[in-house]
Amino acid sequence: MDENEKKLHEKFDLLKGYLDKEDNLRFRKTYLDMHFYDQSTFYLTLDAEERQKLYGILQPNEMGDMFDTLQDDLPEIPDFLLEMDVKYAADMLNYMYDDNAADVLEHLDKSHVDEFLEQMPKADANNLRGLLHYDTETAGGIMTTDYVEFNESIKAGEAIQDLRKFAETAETIYYLYLLDDHKDLVGVMSLRDLILQKPEVNLRDVMNTDIISVNVDEEQEEVAKVFRDYEFLAVPVVDHANHMVGIITVDDVIEVIDDEAQQDYSGLAAVNVDESEHDGPLKAASKRLPWLITLLLLSMFTATLVNHYEGLLAQASILAVFISTITGTAGNAGTQSLAVAVRRLAVDEIDKSDFFKLIGKELLTGFVTGFVTGVSVFLIVGIWKSNFVLGFVIGLAMCAAIMVANLAGSLIPMMMASFGFDPAVASGPFISTLSDLTSVLIYFSIAGVFISHFVGS
Amino acid sequence: MDENEKKLHEKFDLLKGYLDKEDNLRFRKTYLDMHFYDQSTFYLTLDAEERQKLYGILQPNEMGDMFDTLQDDLPEIPDFLLEMDVKYAADMLNYMYDDNAADVLEHLDKSHVDEFLEQMPKADANNLRGLLHYDTETAGGIMTTDYVEFNESIKAGEAIQDLRKFAETAETIYYLYLLDDHKDLVGVMSLRDLILQKPEVNLRDVMNTDIISVNVDEEQEEVAKVFRDYEFLAVPVVDHANHMVGIITVDDVIEVIDDEAQQDYSGLAAVNVDESEHDGPLKAASKRLPWLITLLLLSMFTATLVNHYEGLLAQASILAVFISTITGTAGNAGTQSLAVAVRRLAVDEIDKSDFFKLIGKELLTGFVTGFVTGVSVFLIVGIWKSNFVLGFVIGLAMCAAIMVANLAGSLIPMMMASFGFDPAVASGPFISTLSDLTSVLIYFSIAGVFISHFVGS
C-alpha cells in the first residue's frame, strides 16, 4: 500500500497548491476524480481557513458524498458542521445517506440538530427525526430508508427503467424490495436476477418470497449474524406489523463487527482499547484507573485473607514463596475458560440444557488441566526443595485452585448473560483477581492441614 | 429470530418426510426455494444414508450452490466429499465459486485433490491448482477468478447485454473491470454507474481510472482495511506486473475480519477460543495446557526470587500479605497497556518516530496510574496496619511495579511487531506472569531498604 499512499500524498500537495492559488477549476477536477474516502482523508488534513475555501468551491451534495465516508464518531465532526453556513450544512446533510446523516446528528446538541432540521424540506427532516429515535445499537439505529421499492405487479423491463431514478439516491440498487398493495414486504429480487429476466415478466412471478428480514429493534450483533450466515449485501428491516421501514447495508455491518470485536477485546483486558491516539497520558490514565482501583480494592480482600494466616506464615515462611505461582497460574486458567465462554456466548444462544452440559464439561476440563499442572508443580517443588510433602501441598492446592478458577471463568459470564448483562464485561483481570482470593484460601487451608508434615522435614 | 427458526425447523421436518417417502418432486421444490444457507443448515442435520439420497436428487450445480455457503473449515467436509461419487464431487466443485472450491480442497489430502481435479476440464483444474498455490491468509488465498472483465473499448449498451452471460457464473456482477489490449487493468465501473449511461457511450470515457487494487500477496488484514475504508463490495487483485488475476468480495472479507478478531482475542487470553463445542474435556485441556505449563515454568522464576528473599520474609512475614496485591495489580495494568498497544498495532502502521512518542506516552500513563494507585494503597495499608512506613513501602513498590508492567505491556508487542512477529501472541497472561517477576523484585528490594523502619513499629 505504500506506493498508493505516496501517490495520494503527491495528489494532496497538488490540491493544496490549487487551493492556495484559488485555482478552483483545476481543484474541482482533481478533487472530484478521487474516491470519496480519499477526499475525506484530504479534508481531515486541512485547517479551518482551508476548509472555508473548500465550502466555497464544492456544492453541498459533493460535500455530502465525502461526509458519507467520514467516521461519525470523529470528535471534530460537530465543529465541522458548526463552522459551515447553516443552510449549506443542512443541504449537505440532506444529500447524505440518511443513516449517515442521522449518525452525524447524534453527536450534536439537540438545539443544533433542530437548527439544521428546520432548514430541510419537512418530509426529509421528519424522516431523519424518525431515524434519530432508534437506539444506535439496534437495526433501526444502523438502517437507511434510501432503498429501492416497487409494487410487486411491476414488469422486469419497467423495473430496470425505473431503477435509474433510484441510482442517484438509494444506498444500494442491487436489491429490489417488492411490496403488495398494503405496503407489506412480499418479495425480494437481486439486480443480478433481474437482468436475467425477460422484460415482460411480472416480478411477482419470479421474486424470492422466502424473505430473511430483521426486526427494527433487533440488536446489531444479531443483524451481523444474518449477514455472516447468508452473505447478503443488504437486509430489509421491518416493523412489528411486517411493514418495511428500511434496509441495512453490508458496509454498516462491517463497522458493527469491528465495534463488537473491539468491545469484546476491551472487556477481556479491562480497558477501553479505543483510546484515541490524541489522548494525552492523563486522559489515558483516567480511563484505565477506575478498573485498576476497583480491582485493587478486590485484591485487598486477598491481602486480608493472607493476613489472617500470618501465624501459619510465621511458622513456615516457605509458604510465601509459592503464593504468586498458585494465584498466577489459577488466574491464567480462569482467563482461558472465561475467554472460551464469552466467545461461545457471542456465537450461540445457550439454553438451560446446554448450560449444565457446558458447566460439566468445563469442570472436567478444569480437572484435567488442574491435575496435569498440579503433578508438574508437585515434581518441580518436590525435587527443588527435596520435600515431597511440600510438593504435594503445592500441587494439590494448584489443582484445586485451577478447578475453581476454571469453573468461575465459565460460570460468571454465563450467569451474566442469563441475567441480560453483556458477558464480555467479566474481564480477564476481574476473574484473575477474584481467583486470587479463592486460590489463597485453598492454599492456606491445605497447608494448615499438612503443616506438621513438611515443616522441619 | 426465534420465529424464523421455528418456521425453518418445520420446513426441515417436511423435507425429511419427503426424503423418507422418496417424494423427490416435492422435495426439490421445497428445498430449492430455500436460501442456500438454509439448505446447508438442513444438509448438516442429515445422516450418511439421507445424504446419499440427496446426492441422487440434486444436480451437482445445485449441490455446489449450497456448498458455497458451508464453512470450509468444518471438520466433516472431507468426509462429505469422499462419500460422493468422484465425478459428482468434481462436477460440484467445478460449479462452486473457485475461491470456495479451493478453500474446500485445501482441507483434503493431496492424493484426493488430484483425483477430483483429474475429473474436471483441464482449464478449470489448472485454475483451481493456481489458487491452491497462494498462501491462505493473503489476497491470493481469498480471491476468486470468477469476475466480469471487458476490453475498455466496449460500449455501455453492449456491456449490459454481455453482462447476462456473466450473471450465472461471476461471483459478483456489480463491478465491471476494464482491461486494455495488454490485459492491464485500466478502469473500474460499478453496475450502478453503468445503468445510468447511454447505450452508445464508450466505457473508456466514463470508467473510473483511479483504481484501488490490492497485490496478490498482500496480507488479508491489509485487504480488510481497504474494504473498511472505501466501503467497496469487491476489490481487484493484481500481480506484480499490474495484470488482473482476481477479485475479493466483501463476504470473504467479513470472514477475515471475524478470524482476525478471534485470533486477537485468543492471543490476549492465551487460549484458542475457537475450541469446538464438540471437543471433549480432554481435547480442550490439551489445547490449554501448553500455555499454562509454559507460564507455570515462567512463574517458577518468581518463586525462586521470593525464595531468595526468605530471610526478609522470616523477619517480616507481613510482607507476604501484599505479594498477591502487588503482582496482581501490576499484572492488570500491564494487560491494559498490552491490549491498547496490540489494538493500535492492528489499526496503524507505526514507524520509528511514533515508536518513541508512544513509549514516552505509555511511560507517563504508567507514572500517573502508578502514582494514583500507589497513593491509594499507601493510605489503605497505612490506616489498616497503623503503619505508614509499611504503607509507604507497599505504595512505592506498587507504583514502580505498575510503571514497569505498563512499559513492558507496550514495549513487548511493539518490538515483536517490528521484528515481524504477530504482536497478538504476547498475551495478557504472559505479560502478567512476566510482570510478577519484576514486581516481586521491586517489592523486596524496596522492603529490604526500609525493613528496619517498619518492623516492630
UniProtKB/TrEMBL annotation, chains A, B:
Taxonomic source organism: Companilactobacillus mishanensis
InterPro entries hit by this protein: CBS_dom (IPR000644), CBS_dom_sf (IPR046342), Mg_transptr_MgtE_intracell_dom (IPR006668), MgtE_N_sf (IPR038076), MgtE_transporter (IPR006669), SLC41_membr_dom (IPR006667), SLC41_membr_dom_sf (IPR036739)
Membrane topology field: Multi-pass membrane protein
GO molecular-function terms, A-Z: magnesium ion transmembrane transporter activity; metal ion binding
Protein name: Magnesium transporter MgtE
Pfam families documented for this protein: CBS (PF00571), MgtE (PF01769), MgtE_N (PF03448)
Ranges that cross the membrane: 289-306, 318-342, 363-384, 390-412, 433-455
Entry coiled-coil feature ranges: none
Protein purpose: Acts as a magnesium transporter.
Isomerase recorded as keyword: no
Gene that this sequence comes from: mgtE
Organismal lineage: Bacteria, Bacillati, Bacillota, Bacilli, Lactobacillales
Keywords linked to the UniProt accession: CBS domain, Cell membrane, Magnesium, Membrane, Metal-binding, Transmembrane, Transmembrane helix, Transport
Domain CBS, first and last residues per copy: 207-263
Entry GO terms, CC: plasma membrane
Residues annotated as signal peptide: none
Family statement drawn from the similarity comment of this UniProt entry: Belongs to the SLC41A transporter family.
Record bears the keyword Transport: yes
